[in-house]
Amino acid sequence: MPGPESPRFRRSPRRWVVPPGLSAADEPFEGYTVLAEIRDGLGVVLWQSLRDLDLWSTSPPEARRALLTPGVVQRRKAWLASVLEPGSPLLAPLRLLSRAVEGRARVGADDVVDACHAVSKWAAGHGHSRTATAFAQSAAFAAPDRASAAYEVALLARRGAEYRRAETWFRRALGLARRTGDWKHYGLACVGLGNLFLQRGDYPTARGWFNRSLRVARRHGLWHVRPMALHDLFCMAAKAGQLQEAEMYARRAFRAYGRRHPRLVALAHDVGRFWMLKGDYARALKVLRAVLPHIERKAERRVANSNIALAAAGLGDRFVFAAMWSEVWREIGERDDTEGVPNALLNLARGAAALGDRERAQLAATHALRSAIQRREAEVRLAAESLLEGLRGPRLSLGSGPDRPYGEASADALVTDLVDALMDEPAEPV
Fold first, then answer.
1. Distance between CA atoms of residues 212 and 160, nearest Å
2. Interatomic CA distance for residues 243 and 237, integer angstroms
3. How many other β-carbons are positioned within 10 Å of the β-carbon of residue 20?
4. Whether the Cβ atoms of residue 376 and residue 163 lie closer than 8 Å to each other
5. What is the rounded distance in angstroms from the CA atom of residue 190 to the CA atom of residue 235?
6. With 70 as the cut, is the pLDDT of residue 124 above it?
């Protein structure tokens, strides 16, 4: 029998297990979602680039020169020039990816990752969420040891309502970050997992991940991770109805962000929504109006406009509500992505109910329910079902009335601080 000095009993160096990230499992063939989202010549070019890139990433370096048959790359370049304008932001990254696949030019993994992220950013900005995730995933395949690339896939998958896929990539980012000592993305992955469990309504598990990110941020001096964790702890306390705790976390997050942080806009928006849902519509509307000029992402803008509509309805302002009602529906109709749509429509339905407009309330609530089912957002689904049930009764109501158990002076001071920070020195657009 082997003894303790036998090789069988010797301890090997500790290695952190890195789980794989889940690829898209609902595609009839690889890259299908790109063609489904972009149904023209550009979509075909992006689809081909994606397939070529995945082949390049999974091939050994010495075999990459022989991946494509002669003449294919030249035909691809000609087609690329025919579908893109000379000043298109896609032209440079797609040309670089073509050179990488061709194998003749020296193109490193860093260049490929940057090009993939450029295409991904363009796709996300144009509402092509699945295309954005696909190119982010290709970047992660090109740099399989990089936690930042895995984290980017997880973030985009979560925005696209691919929650199972997002969880696997967040956990992969955790493993890679711990193995390489990338504590920034370890903390960010903890925040990402906390938000996933928060969306599922599992508050104890979410709190555990947020607190873990705070500990990592404190231990390693990650001052950009700490405010995000505090921000999410505020959101969780607000959802749970813990008003004093929510305001405490909001103030701590505000101090941690500082007046120039780009995420301050998101914090102010969430604080305004928190006050609104507790019936404090005047304070909410003041903050939300200060936030709106700084929001550029379409998915976030439609939610912000719907929150203004709900706050205006709570104050009985039918003119502002009608204007925001039309704006939100326009923003939803002009884009194919569904990020933020269930929440935006639920806000419109609640606002219409508050104003006694049963027809509009039923229309918006019905569409909110359908969108929530499609995106598997259980909390919004239950809220929409509850509202539709209430609309069948003889009276209409917004639900919760004014509820201000914390100090008036403290709340007013927080409003002033947030609005002044946004008005005096606007943060960078989010």
1. 25
2. 7
3. 11
4. yes
5. 16
6. yes
The percent helix, strand, coil of the chain (3-state, each to 5) is 70, 0, 30
CA distance 302 to 297: 9
pLDDT of residue 405: 43
Task: Give the pTM.
Answer: 0.81
Helices 129-142 and 147-159, axial angle in degrees (round to 10) = 160
**Residue 299 identity (one-letter amino acid):** A
Burial class (CB in 10 A: 0-12, 13-18, 19+), 203: middle
Pick the closest to residue 40 from 126, 112, 121 (CA basis): 126
What is the 8-class DSSP label of residue 43?
H
Nearest-angstrom CA–CA distance, 298 and 38: 18
Distance CA 264, CA 421 (A): 9
Q: Which of 169, 103, 167, 163 is nearest to 136 (CA)?
A: 169
Count Cβ atoms below 10 Å from residue 39 Cβ, excluding itself: 10
* Residues 271, 248 contacting (CB under 8 angstroms): no
Read off the pLDDT of residues 19-51 as tens digits, 9 standing for 90 and up: 888 887 677 778 888 888 888 888 888 998 888
pLDDT per residue over 87-104, tens digit each?
788 988 888 888 777 766
- Whether the CA torsion 193, 194, 199, 203 is positive or negative: it is positive
- The residues, ordered by sequence, that sit 6+ positions from 67 with a Cβ below 8 Å of its Cβ are 52, 55, 56, 59, 101, 103
Concatenate the DSSP letters of all residues of 196-251 into one string.
HHHHTT-HHHHHHHHHHHHHHHHHHT-TTTHHHHHHHHHHHHHHTT-HHHHHHHHH
Q: Both tokens of residue 426?
A: 């606007």
Q: ∠ CA(311), CA(242), CA(253), 5° rounding? A: 80
CA triplet 125, 372, 383: central angle to 5 degrees? Answer: 125
Cα torsion through 375, 381, 383, 386, rounded to 10: 160
Token pair for 243: 């008003």
Among residues 243, 277, 259, the alpha carbon closest in space to that of 411 is found at 243
